[in-house]
């Protein structure tokens, strides 16, 4: 199909959609149909031209597309250059806005300002799918979005677990079963978020990471994913997730000790999260304290290597390492007393981004 034929068909449809105050009668706003090259009849709802977005590739089920968009999509489907992203009538003047990598990135930043982190994460996923290595800014936006989305589920899981223990101690089996079902629902959400991130890390982010810093960053994220899965799991699921988390953290550490200075914020954040893994998942306070102290001491010895750009981030993470060391050391000293008094209330440890 030639380009001239395409635009001729588009102009014909445009005449059908002309407002009713012109000499040409208007068509009912329910549906319009456009047949191109005797192929499938494409039905477009004009009344809903700016409404809900549906299937990305099923043009017949996308009421937000204009007639021109449908014609263009059919034109591309005949062997020409295909559309790289969906299109929508999103502007007040009726112009078409193409969903590009830049637009997804802008929407992610906008969602960040509005604290709508689920939408921020969805837009950053689309940025990742563009198959370009993320910049430091884009990488950090992805991490912030994911941490906030998964963080709300982790906080919910802790609250629900406390409620489950409380009702269980009260002997209320009915409420306990209700809480258990709700906890499983939240965990399934958390698991889906982590599994989606793991898929992006394994298939796109880690293979495309060219710099040592990016390799450490993404392997650390992978370790975090499995740590979160292990955090609220039991039995074999906890063990399997824990083993994979350990493997990812070790992979990140092997690169970090070679590629990054001891004062680099990414290396310090890795040590912080890795030590939390040992404390919370492996239940090894000694190893957690050793790792955190080693990272802190190494950074102190090389403090003169801190750059102006990373000084604030590095010193903040060093402070978190020291805070955790203080908390953990205090717990270890009080272990015997706490065991005698029953299960203590644990002070939450902090982790990096």
What structural keywords apply?
two-stranded antiparallel sheet, 12 helices, 65% helix, 353 residues, mainly alpha
Q: What does this protein structure show overall?
A:
This protein has 353 residues and is mostly helical. Helices cover 65% and strands 3% of the residues. The protein contains 12 helices and 4 strands. Strands 1-2 form a two-stranded antiparallel ribbon. Strands 3-4 form a two-stranded antiparallel ribbon. Strand 3 (87-88) and strand 4 form a beta hairpin. Helix 8 (235-259) runs antiparallel to helix 9, helix 9 (265-280) packs antiparallel against helix 10 and helix 10 runs antiparallel to helix 11 (311-333). The protein starts with a helix and ends in a 12-residue tail after the last helix. Mean pLDDT is 77; it is low at 13-90.
């Amino acid at each position: 199909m030639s380009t001239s034929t395409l635009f001729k068909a588009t102009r014909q449809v445009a005449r059908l959609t002309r407002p009713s105050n012109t000499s040409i009668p208007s068509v009912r706003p329910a549906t319009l149909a456009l047949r191109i090259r005797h192929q499938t009849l494409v039905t477009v709802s004009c009344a809903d031209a700016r409404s809900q977005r549906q299937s990305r590739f099923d043009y017949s089920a996308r009421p937000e597309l204009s007639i021109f968009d449908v014609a263009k999509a059919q034109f591309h489907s005949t062997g020409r250059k295909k559309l790289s992203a969906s299109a929508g009538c999103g502007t007040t003047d009726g112009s078409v806005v193409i969903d590009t990598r830049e637009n997804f990135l802008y929407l992610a930043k906008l969602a960040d300002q509005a604290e709508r982190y689920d939408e921020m994460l969805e837009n950053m996923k689309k940025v990742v799918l563009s198959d370009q290595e993320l910049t430091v800014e884009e990488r950090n936006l992805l991490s912030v979005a994911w941490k906030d989305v998964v963080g709300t589920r982790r906080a919910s899981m802790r609250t629900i677990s406390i409620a489950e223990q409380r009702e269980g101690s009260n002997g209320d089996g009915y409420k306990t079963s209700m809480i258990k079902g709700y906890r499983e629902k939240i965990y399934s959400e958390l698991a889906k978020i982590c599994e989606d991130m793991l898929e992006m890390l394994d298939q796109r982010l880690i293979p495309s990471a060219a710099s040592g810093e990016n390799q450490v960053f993404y392997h650390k994220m992978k370790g975090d994913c499995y740590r979160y899965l292990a955090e609220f799991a039991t039995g074999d699921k906890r063990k399997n997730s824990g083993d994979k988390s350990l493997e990812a953290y070790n992979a990140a550490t092997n690169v970090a000790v070679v590629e990054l200075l001891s004062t680099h914020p990414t290396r310090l954040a890795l040590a912080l999260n890795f030590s939390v893994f040992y404390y919370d998942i492996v239940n090894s306070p000694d190893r957690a304290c050793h790792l955190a102290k080693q990272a802190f001491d190494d950074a102190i010895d090389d403090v003169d290597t801190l750059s102006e750009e990373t000084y604030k981030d590095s010193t903040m993470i060093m402070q978190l390492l020291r805070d955790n060391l203080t908390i953990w050391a205090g717990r270890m000293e009080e272990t015997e007393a706490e065991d005698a008094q029953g299960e203590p209330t644990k002070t939450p440890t902090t982790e990096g981004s």
